Amino acid sequence: MRFTNSVASCLIAALWVTPSLITVTQADEITIKIETKESTSPDEAKSSPFSGQRATVDVAILLDTSSSMDGLINQARSQLWNIVQEFMKAKKAGKTPLLRVAVMEYGNSGLPATEDYIRQVVPMTDDLDKVSEGLFALSTNGGDEYCGSVIKESLKRLDWSTEPGGYKAIFIAGNEPFDQGSVDYKAACKNAIQQGVVVNTIHCGNRNAGVRGHWKEGADLAEGKFMNIDQDERVVHIKAPQDKIIIELNAQLNKTYLWYGKAEKRQAYQMNQARQDSNAGGSGGLSSRAKIKSSSIYRNVGRDLVDTFEESQDAVKDLDESKLPESLKSLSPEQRVAEIQRLSKLRTEIKSKLAEASKQRDAFVQAEQKKLAESSGETFGDAFSAAVSEQLQQAGFQQSQ
Fold first, then answer.
1. Which residues partner with 226 through β-bridges?
2. Confidence (pTM)
3. Which of 18, 21, 79, 140 sits at 20 to 30 Å (Cα–Cα) from 99?
4. Are 272 and 130 in contact (CB under 8 A)?
5. What residues contact 41, with CB distance under 8 A and at least 6 apart?
């Protein structure tokens, strides 16, 4: 492989700018594009959307964080990794898509009224650990819920891909009427679909109330799906015999990461990966998270040297030594590549074992679910996954079981 339209200095910059802003194309040639604004630091540099053979998937999650929505937030946290599995199963032209997720909150009285009580929690990013971190940092308060406004702002603020052949969707969840606020929800939804962004609405509460509150109309206007859930339904995670080995393999997998960047960045990446493992474990979803980490949907190109090496072997040959992990600093360039190759092979082996254990666990869980006599209400994750599965197929993706 070789780089085109790049110089050596760009290689170094491309590996330590903000991770979600790195653009890598996976084709016969690898290209890293960096666009910097005047007077911005490299960490604030912004790149154009991904351009390559792997289709893009951009999803914005807009959550009502008013005082009545604690149950919704808990469902989103505990079901994140189950939701991501829908994208893990998707293929276009035989390749897993490049998934980016953004999170915005609205309706929280602790946010500025001048901004319609809206906040961008996580920008559009491929760093799924950052998404999990953002969800676990949310709190509820207040409020005034303006759906039209948050949809409009998500279209304006987020770095949506312009690539053809992908999937772009908004999932907005809440319980108050959809037509509140000064921004016309009809115009916002029409504008979304004109930009190729589907709007799915999830009403927390009675379906008829959601219809009367214009949640269905909002989805219809943007060619999305209208759903209703019980935000207070407890998410049940079934324990399986395979959980122990999955947790052990996950710990082994973490040891294969070689985080790259300034010392504080490397430490932050490592600590956040471990923290999100802990968050998932606390809500019963560590096995689901580990399954995602065994797949190509969980990627840290530009942050981790092993993932970056797998995208482009050339990209790790000329590195800024001060930004290398400590384990590589004393090695020669050739020895560094050899160590990265060793960890890449080890990671592949661990991922294979994780995938097999996860497959066995899925079979066990499905069998146990059939034994459950009680029917539970639909949750955020249930609604999200059902819509994604259907819409990915409509967008030309094939989905494996």
1. 201
2. 0.84
3. 140
4. yes
5. none
Per the CB < 8 A criterion, the answer to whether 69 and 175 are in contact is: yes
Paired residues of 122 in beta bridges: 103
The CB density around residue 194, as the number of other CB atoms within 10 Å, is: 10
Q: Where are the strands (E) in 143-274, listed by range? A: 167-174, 198-204, 226-229
pLDDT of residue 217: 98
Q: What is the dihedral of CA 259, 77, 149, 179, to 10 degrees?
A: 170
Find tokens 């946010």 and name the residue. Answer: 111
Residue 380 and residue 235 in contact, taking contact as beta carbons nearer than 8 Å: no
For residue 46, the 8-state DSSP code is B
pLDDT in tens, 233-281: 888 788 999 999 999 999 999 999 999 999 999 999 999 999 999 999 9
- β 198-204/167-174 pair status: parallel
Q: Which residue has the higher pLDDT, 373 or 78?
A: 78
Is residue 389 within 8 Å of residue 230, measured between CB atoms?
Answer: no
pLDDT band at 328 (very low <50, low <70, confident <90, very high): very high
Rg (the chain; Cα; Å): 21
Enumerate the domain spans of the chain: 8-48+238-370, 56-236+376-399
Euclidean distance between CA atoms 134 and 65, whole angstroms: 13
Q: What's the pLDDT at 52?
A: 54
State which H helix or E strand residue 218 sits in.
helix 215-221
Instruction: For domain 56-236+376-399, give the CATH superfamily.
Output: von Willebrand factor, type A domain (3.40.50.410)
Helical pair 147-157 and 185-194, crossing angle rounded to 10 deg: 30
Q: What is the DSSP string of 291-331?
A: HHHTSTTS--BTTBHHHHHHH-GGGGTS--GGGS-HHHHTS
> What b-and-e string marks burial along 77-110, b requiring 16 or more CB atoms within 10 Å of the CB?
bbbbbbbbbbbbbbbbeeebbbbbbbbbbbbbee
- What pLDDT does residue 298 have? 96
Give the Cα separation of 99 and 158 in Å (integer). 14
Taking alpha carbons only, the member of 244, 235, 258 closest to residue 286 is 244
* Segment 375-386 mean pLDDT: 85
